[in-house]
Amino acid sequence: MGKLLPTILDTKHENILSQERVLAKTVASVVIGQTPVTVWDVLIPIIFIFNGLKFKRAREVFTLNFLFTKKLALEGAFMMVKTGQSREDALGQIRDRTSQILASDKKGIYSIKIRQKQMREIELLLDHYFRLLNAEAKDFASMVKHAYRSRQNFAAFLKELEGIEKEVNRAASQTVGTTSAPDIVSKMEEAAGRVRATQMNTIFGPSA
């Protein structure tokens, strides 16, 4: 049998994930720069320690781990729309998965506090992606317009998301406990803010 053609829902899923990859790769390029990095320099959104990372590999690992919460939430929202799974069940599966990761971490990097903050982020993202996937559109910009209706509504969501992301980053910084952590977090948040501001202007036009 030939490969099944992607459904509209599949296309929406891929378009959303593609936008999140753009954000993650941009932040990775800013944080990591163009030189080899140490393990701590790529740890802030990362769950596991990777030793001996060079620039390209470090950027790839950073990108994957920056997407960790986003992909969990997007997959949960996708299954809610596709199968009618309840929000409670989707979150329960995500909690189980992150609990397993926490239990398997023997180095104390993925702390209970980080997981708790990430679950708040995932809950917000789950609702966000669910709205996008239910929008009567396929491309990302149209999905956002249909789901949020106005620049103000989308800006309010981004402000709430950025606030929760800061809590995750603070928890991770405290766990890492290195002097370089605050500077790395600042670079991450500034880069993400710039990408999202550009994204919002592209979708809704420049603010008055």
Sum this structure up briefly.
With 208 residues, the chain is mainly alpha-helical. Helix content is 73%, strand content 0%.
Can you offer a commentary on this structure?
- The chain is an all-alpha fold and 208 residues long.
- It has one domain (8-202).
- Helices cover 73% and strands 0% of the residues.
- The protein contains 8 helices and no strands.
- The protein has helices at residues 8-32, 55-66, 68-83, 87-104, 112-133, 140-148, 151-176, 181-204.
Could you give a short account of the major beta sheet? none
Rg for CA atoms: 17 Å
Which band does the percent of strand residues land in? under 5%
Q: Please state the overall shape, judged from the principal axes of the Cα atoms.
A: globular
Oligomer: single chain
Mean pLDDT: 85
Tell me the span between the first and last alpha carbons. 54 Å
Order of helices and strands: HHHHHHHH
Count of the domains: 1
List the helices and strands and how they pair.
Blueprint: H1 8-32, H2 55-66, H3 68-83, H4 87-104, H5 112-133, H6 140-148, H7 151-176, H8 181-204
Attribute tags:
208 residues; mainly alpha; globular
